[in-house]
Amino acid sequence: MLMRLKIRDVREDHDLTQQQVAEYLMCDQSLYSKYERGERDVPLNIMIKLAQFYKTSLDYLVGFTENKRPYR
């Protein structure tokens, strides 16, 4: 099963640039861009930071659910 991460969609929903998110994650914009395009696997710690930043769940970011609400 091929999963498409929703990190680009969520970023755009929040009207943020890749550079802004990369700065939050303390990584290079080009690396973050590769995460969005699926050219690099996103480490779990980065996915957790993104879920916390966007106040959503990991399940939503990885496409397991359409429910954006976090579990706690």
From TrEMBL:
Q: Which UniProt keywords apply?
A: DNA-binding
Give yes or no: UniProt keyword DNA-binding.
yes
Q: Which residues form a coiled coil?
A: none
| GO MF annotation, one | DNA binding
Alphabetical list of InterPro entries matching this protein: Cro/C1-type_HTH, Lambda_DNA-bd_dom_sf
**Domain HTH cro/C1-type, chain residue ranges per copy:** 7-61
Q: Which residues cross the membrane?
A: none
Name the record gives this protein: XRE family transcriptional regulator
